[in-house]
Amino acid sequence: MSLVYQEKKRVACYESDSTEKMLPTTAMNYFQEASTNQGNQLGLGGDYLKENNLAWFLVKYAIRFYDYPRYQDEVMVTTRATGMEKFCATRRFTVEDASGVVKVTADTQWLLINRETEKMERIDEHPEMDAYECFDKGEPIFKKLSKINQVDLEKCFSVRFLDIDFNQHVNHVKYLAWAIEVLPLEVVKSKVLAEAKMIYKAQCFYGDQIRALGEKLGENQYRIDIVNQDDIILCQLQLMLK
Fold it and tell me: What pLDDT, on the 0 to 100 scale, is given for residue 139?
C-alpha cells in the first residue's frame, strides 16, 4: 500500500451552489490541492519538479459523485498513488464525510514530462519517486470515449487571466466547468452530476477562444468536446447525470 495523505476541509459558501450543495469542481480543486501538498511534504512538489525540469501532465480523469457534501460540512480528502510504471502514474482520491462515508471518488492518470524536451520521462530514472512507496503498475482508468456524431449543444468562452494556473495554462478543473455550462439550464437545475470521464488532449492559454460542443447520448448522458479557435480538441468529456 502506498503512502496515504489526508487533510480536512470545510465546504465554503463560494464552493457551493445555490442549493448549498458542494460544486463538482470543488472536489477536483480539493484533489489537486491534496496531491500538491503530498508532493511538497515528500520533497517532490513544485520546487523539485522545477529543479529537475519535470512536469506531471494529466491525461485522464474519472470522477464519481455518490452524494454531495453541503455548505459548512466538514470532509476528509484522501489521496494516494496507485500505480507507477515507465512514464505513467495513477492516483486515487476520495472525499468522505465526518462519519467516514465516501461521497466522491476519482481516479487519475498522469505522464511525467521533461519540460525542456517536451518528451516523456521514465519515472524509474528518478529514484526520489520511491518516497511515494508505490511499486504497483496501476490499473487502466478507462480506454477511450466515443466520437461526437452531431452537435446538439454549443457555447463559446474566452479564456480569462483567472483561468490560468501556475503552469501558465488553463487549469484542468476549468474544462469540467465549461462542459457543465453548455448543458441546458433546465437540466443543470433539475439534475446533478453523477460521473464524469475526461481525456486531456492539449493545452489551452490566455486569450484562446473556446467552444464547448455537446451531443446528447441519452436521457442523462452527454459527450462534450472542448476545442480552441483552431478546432484543436483540448479535452473530451462524458457526463452522466442523475
Answer: 87
161-202 pLDDT tens trace: 999 888 788 999 999 999 999 999 999 999 999 999 999 999
Residue 110 scores a pLDDT above 90: yes
List own/partner pairs for 34-41 with CB under 8 A and 24 or more apart.
34/5, 34/6, 34/7, 34/77, 34/78, 34/79, 34/93, 35/5, 35/79, 35/91, 35/93, 37/5, 37/7, 38/3, 38/5, 38/79, 41/5
**Angle (nearest 5°) at CA 176 between 34 and 237:** 115
Above pLDDT 90, what percent of the chain? 94
Longest dimension (CA), the chain: 51
Residue linked to cell 465549461? 178
Give pLDDT tens digits for 68-78: 999 999 999 99
> Is this structure's pTM higher than 0.85?
yes
In the DSSP assignment, the letter for residue 20 is S
104-124 burial, b at 16+ Cβ within 10 Å, e below that, comes to bbbbbbbbbbeeeeeeebebe
pLDDT at 197: 98
110, 59 contact by CB (below 8 A): yes
C-alpha cell at 126: 528518478
Is the separation of the CB atoms in 20 and 71 below 8 Å?
yes
**Which amino acid, one-letter code, is at 104?**
V
